[in-house]
Amino acid sequence: MSKQGELALGNLAKYIVQAQSWKSSIVLIIILGLIVEGATYFAWVNGHISHSMMGLWLIITPALLTIPLSVKMVARHHRTLTYDWSALIVFVDVLILSVFPLITLVFYPEIVGIAHATSIGVMLLVRLLLLLAIADDRFSPTLRVALIHPILALLVGSYYFGPEFVLFGGLITIFFAFGIFLFVEIVERPLEKNFGINLFTFANAFMNQTIEGEQKMEELFEQIGEEVYVPEVSFFFSQKDGNKFILTVPSVHPGPIENIGGANLPAVLHEALGEYTFVFHGASTHDYNLVTEKECSKIITVIGHGQRNATYAHTTATKPLRIQAGSVSVLAQVFGDCALLVSTRSPNITEDLDYSIGMAIMNAGQQTFSHTAFVDGHNSISELAQSVSPGSTLCYEYVLASNKAFSELLKEEQHSLKVGVARVLVPFTRAQGFGDLGIMALVTEADGIRAVYVLFDGNNMVTGTRELVRDHIMSFDWVDECEIATTDTHSVNRFSGFNAIGVQIPPDQFMPYVDDVVQQAYQNCVHTAVSGDTRWLPVRIFGNQRVSQLASTISSFLPLMAPVILIIILLSFLLSILAFILLFTDSFW
After folding, report:
1. pLDDT, tens digit (0-9, with 9 covering 90-100), for 519-556
2. In whole angstroms, what is the distance from residue 270 CA to residue 296 CA?
3. In the prediction, which pLDDT does 5 show?
4. Largest Cα–Cα distance in the chain?
5. C-alpha span between 296 and 299 (Å, rounded)
6. Which DSSP category does 316 fall into?
7. Rounded CA gap, 98 and 62, in Å?
8. Which residues contact 515 (CB under 8 A, 6 or more apart)?
9. Exposure class string for 98-107: b at 16+ Cβ within 10 A, else e
10. Which of 66, 61, 59, 63 is closest to 35 using CA atoms?
């Protein structure tokens, strides 16, 4: 995936908005109405207008009636609009309705009717776009809901400004509705052409899933996704005391955000497979996001089948080896016939590795070892960055470091293996960068050499954090080698594409939990047998370059929406005035 695509995907989250309480919106609506009421009063006292109480009847009353009517009308169309969202949209309506009359009441009170009629047309435009994005992506039923507020405003306005107001306001509303229809047709074409979906279907699904928890987004992804076969490499451990645990490396990506698709894959696998299921991050980008959370069940089935057939024939392991090639460092260790490689570029920025890089490394390892698990430590980032692509210098360094590791591991003798595991929950939330699994640790001991593998359930680490944690663990007198990794869970990404470990919670606050989990794992070390398993399975993913294309397509024309809307407003207003002049010979009111 290109850097632009990665950045575009992360930046999509900034378009998510949470509705405030409907009570807060109503308070703001009343305040705006009272402000208009004050301006109306002074204009009336000075003889510029013939009616007062415009704030109450023109602004507040239609708005309060529109909130419940919109909710009920949307429900009749078998869609959902909450009172919070209905009130917030109406507040935006009122904001538009208030600005135009306020300006004219202060400077040109004699044309306040024209200003109010124009504001109704602009309000319809914004209101319809918001409803399309939030409540219902279908134009015709949404237009009917959107017209509730303009119609009420026109009816009330007829009392103040006469029938000419209704005629002019009706014309401008019709022209604006037609302009919005053209706008929708134009902006929907890029997504329709490339993905078979339209912008407002996407926006509606995006907002509903991230805010209301509905599954519309996954339905879209399933529609545009493609099926692929990927390997699932798992190591099954059985301890002397009968405890069993799993180390697995999926070849799919835990994205895109929150609970959409496979974004919470590590926690889903952990919940299904057992308390000590280590779900490391393999070589995969957002192109390999699962289209729905249901796809996770395929991975669970494959791992479960492997565990049921595990032989636990190996009770030995090599000492851990640290291999360096350029900027890439690999901590490698063999358990029986199972090779584990955990890679990192820290303190250099480490982003996702393309799926093909992991496949090349695994294929090379399987020339010597029955099962090869290649892990992207995913433990150093300072900003959204580009993934490692095939054929790049970084790709060569990863492959070279891994090949060196395989060569060196062949020379190593294997010794009796002890393993200990532990997991500690932390009092930090997803918004603070920590996923549901907290921190996990796996300690291995072979020939008296102990290695510590610490796994944070999070999406990467702030650059330098890995070094702080690793140096701290290495200060323990019983530790000989250590590596830190994250699951790359995107359950922590909702309102930002960047929410790494260390952004919200500094290391000194979570370091006590690191101490706790590492010491527990060390104390739990006992003789352990290992069995490896590599199975291929079909899953439905986003597809090659799909995320990049989708995010880039949307991000490219979103900035153009404002000027296009402005052009529609101007043209609709001019056409309305022209039509009014042609149809009615009398002067304006």
Report:
1. 999 999 999 999 999 999 999 998 776 666 666 666 66
2. 11
3. 46
4. 101
5. 5
6. E
7. 13
8. 472
9. bebbbebbee
10. 59
* Beta strand segments in 306-448, E: 316-317, 321-325, 328-335, 338-344, 371-376, 415-424, 439-446
Question: Partners of 411 in the beta sheet?
Answer: none
Q: What DSSP state is assigned to residue 372?
A: E
172 phi and psi, to 5 degrees? -65, -35
Q: Residue 61 CA to chain centroid, in angstroms?
A: 38
Residue for token pair 């009770």: 315
For 267-296, write each residue's pLDDT tens digit: 999 999 988 999 999 999 988 999 998 999
Cβ-based neighbours of 514, under 8 Å, separated by 6 or more: 439, 454, 469, 472, 473
Dig out the tokens for 289 from the structure: 């996001």
DSSP 540-570: EE--TTHHHHHHHHHHHHHHHHHHHHHHHHH
User: Which tens digit of pLDDT belongs to each residue from 441-454?
Assistant: 999 999 999 999 99
What's the CA gap between 82 and 298, in Å, rounded? 35
Please give the span between the terminal C-alpha atoms of the chain, in angstroms, as a whole number. 60
Which residues lie closer than 8 Å to 450 by C-beta, 6 or more apart?
443, 444, 478, 479, 480, 481, 522
Provide the token pair at 551. 């995010």
Contact call for residues 374 and 361 (beta carbons, < 8 A): yes
- Identify the H or E element spanning 97: helix 83-107
**Which amino acid is located at 583 in the chain?**
L
Q: Residue 55: CB partners within 8 Å, gap ≥ 6?
A: 33, 34, 35, 36, 37, 38, 39, 40
Phi-psi region of 64 (alpha: psi -120 to 50; beta: other; left: phi over 0): alpha
Integer-rounded Cα radius of gyration of the chain: 30
CA nearest neighbour of 265 among 537, 535, 497, 489: 489
Cβ burial, residue 404 (10 Å; 0-12/13-18/19+): middle
pTM metric for this prediction: 0.80
Joined tokens for residue 208: 């509903």
